[in-house]
Amino acid sequence: MAILDAYSYYYGLGIAMMLGYVISSLRIERFIITAITMLPKQVSGTLAKKQMAASQEKSLVDSEESFPRMSILSGWTDENIFELERRAIFSKTWLFVTHAARFKKAGDYRTYDFAGFSFIVILGKDKQLRTFHNVCRHRAYAVTKKACGSSTVLGCRYHGWSYNTKGHLIKAPEFENVPEFDKEKNGLWEVKTEVREGMVCINFDARRDIESMSPAEGETILRRWGVAMMQCIVDWKIEASVNWKCLGFLEPRVDRQQEQWWLSYLPPRFQLGKQTLRVSGTTIVRRVAYGIVIVLAAFPQSANSTIIECSVFASKSPKVTDLETLKMHTSSEIDQMIANAQESRRQESSSSFAASALQAHMNELLELHLSAERRAGAEIHPAAQNQNFSMEGKADDQFCKELGGRTSMCSANARGLLDW
């Protein structure tokens, strides 16, 4: 009977905790801790065992993450390592780009540059988001140089080739009567795109059989936060003279879930969960308040240059003063991150991020790709696309290449188009 009373008390306490979380107006942490200490021994003993097991599991994880990793300090400054990262990581892994809420009507598009990959994300008339390399199939000229805009037809200003929102070539002046020329084979090169809980992710891998994004814990957390239904409130960019991996400096060692351990006893739908979530290796999502997240996305430019795009998303507009405070705090934190990274570089010391599980995974990708290149006896470019030239087009391109040289934008196939 005593055991039954103990469990009745335990479940009653659970209901009270759920109600407290739903109304989001009571600070019940101290109350819960006090109440738990008053539980009968049968229950409190069980909780203590769970807590001890969790602590032992955490110690095990910490010990696993602290074993020596491959020394890759040069990867923070060496352009050759950065080029290897482009081939081994950026060319064939899923990368976060933006939020679907940035696209309202057909033709809305945004352009990005990620480690030399220039691409366009555009909303089609069929309400589907698609991504294309920002490279005209005629002479490799940029289809658009605008950061964002809205148009159901993307026209290259060089020779007038035009494409629709599905990337299909719809206009090619003076090529209509060229033998062997096929519009269907000369559309924009599409980049694989998936949208999960509003987060738009892309994969530059040119193979047809690449795997879709695998479901992960992060997707569940984003759903719990309601990110898919949020709108962009404000965004800004910070140009930082640091390596893209320095974003790891912003990731806290202990999140709120660990600090407030009692939350783990709530049903999953009522848990606050992690307050900081990493989406791919280049993006951090932070839940700063109920219904508000800030996304910090790194867009690598070189081994020593990164653009950090900061975006605040919310289910409803916060106060202007709150936004300004958040923006000021975030910018200050990024400035501190840059200072820490530069100091580590001067001292030639590794960062805490260099010992993380994420860095270990990246090191593994680099090693595997480098091994494959050694076996092949040449660099492997997973994002490289094949050009479909007619006989006349090949001769024309070769003539243009000879005029402009290897680096000419006129040569669509200089460097094996596009070696990326």
Which key phrases capture this entry?
15 strands, seven-stranded antiparallel sheet, globular, 9 helices, alpha+beta, 420 residues, five-stranded antiparallel sheet
Description:
- This protein is of the alpha+beta class.
- Helices cover 34% and strands 21% of the residues.
- The protein is built from nine helices and 15 strands.
- The strands form three sheets. It has a seven-stranded antiparallel sheet, with no helix packed on it. A five-stranded antiparallel sheet has the order 11-15-14-13-12, with helices on both faces.
- The chain starts with a helix and ends in a 16-residue tail after the last helix.
- The relative contact order is 0.13.
- Mean pLDDT is 76; it is low at 22-72, 253-271 and 403-420.
Secondary structure: elements and pairs:
Blueprint: H1 2-23, H2 29-37, H3 41-65, H4 79-90, E1 95-99, E2 108-114, E3 117-123, E4 129-133, E5 148-150, E6 153-155, E7 162-164, E8 169-171, E9 190-196, E10 199-203, H5 217-225, E11 231-240, H6 256-259, E12 276-279, E13 283-289, E14 292-302, E15 305-314, H7 320-347, H8 357-376, H9 391-404
Antiparallel strand pairs: 1-10, 2-3, 2-5, 3-4, 4-9, 6-7, 7-8, 9-10, 11-15, 12-13, 13-14, 14-15
Helix pairs in contact: 4-8
